[in-house]
Amino acid sequence: MANRPVQKETNRRPHFLQFNNLACETAGGKVIFATDEWFAPARNLLKRDPPEFIATAFTEYGKWMDGWETRRKRIPGHDWCIIQLGVPGIMHGFDVDTSFFTGNYAPYTSIQAACLDQMPSFTLEGDRTGMAASPSQFEAVEQLNSDSWEELVPMTKLNPGYSESCHNYLNVTYPHRVTHIRLNIYPDGGIARLKVYGIGKKDWSTVSSQDLVDLVALVNGGVCVGYSDAHFGHPCNMIGIGRADSMGDGWETARRLDRPKVLKVDEKGILQVPGFEWAILRLGHPGIISKIEVDTNHFKGNFPDSCQIQACCLTPDEENNLIRNQGCSDKTPKWRILLPPQKLKAHHRHLFSGESVVQCGPVTHVRLVIAPDGGVSRLRLWGRPVNFT
């Protein structure tokens, strides 16, 4: 099969953007405290969908904004909020997105983090537009001592929310598990979205080696480490929680331009095409995979014709080398067939087990190959976690 080179971006984006957004509302992230939410509530920070701007939209408190915006502060201090991650894990970077906040964006930010043994019981309910934290809420949050949490990002200047400057990418090197973050803004203002990019960290000591676990799931530490194309949707969506809400919550590629003008199939009904697309995922824990799900939910006129899955064991150095070589199988002879080519259907949950899944021993990485192109909403790889050196 011919392989298409990955398109190079003119403006290089941080590598951490291909990791999972551990704070997203769809992953279970939530705001449990905010000092002030006068113009727009802090829960908007965690929305999955991109921010939007409606010029004519106003509330009784002022201009409607799709983000978190505090009032112009007239008392001592600065504003801040606490976010409980939907998936605790290791942080690699942040995107503080100020989209559409141009004359009202927060000028500076800092970010702190903690790993709390017990999750706080308080949370913010309902629409809190026009509200501020009550004395009792301040008293409750003081028990977390959040002002002394580890500083991941020192006070940093933010850029206004114009299209060319709205994404404030902040790289982080912090090797410890995090459950909560504190987002500080100085002194007040607005932020549209906060994305917390990282890798989930599960306590595998609580999992029996006989239990079947989805080894690639977001909540179990699975992560996408490379892909050929993500024109309409990133492959990291495939390991999200639950079934996809829409096509936008899956991996979808552009249509390949090397498709034959007239399509033909083999004796199994699989299209014979020269090209394919691929995504490489690292398992949350090495394991032996025995059951596979490939879900094309919502992909009705744009599902892949077929797929196959390859697997291998890689060290961190070998993983880095693999990504530098753009995942080409001819440069990585370690790949072994885990799932032979399978014809796919539209809007369908495909389950493979038994003889359909090739027993290839313990693996650390998988490579999902789709031909010629299209969309997959979820990938599940159930297996037994194993320890090996």
Automatic annotation (TrEMBL):
Gene Ontology biological-process annotations: allantoin catabolic process
Domain Allantoicase: start-end pairs: 28-198, 221-385
Transmembrane segments: none
Pfam families in alphabetical order: Allantoicase
GO molecular function: allantoicase activity
NCBIfam families: allantoicase
Record-stated family: Belongs to the allantoicase family.
PANTHER family (UniProt xref): ALLANTOICASE, INACTIVE ALLANTOICASE-RELATED
Protein name as annotated: Allantoate amidinohydrolase
Species assigned in the record: Sinocyclocheilus anshuiensis
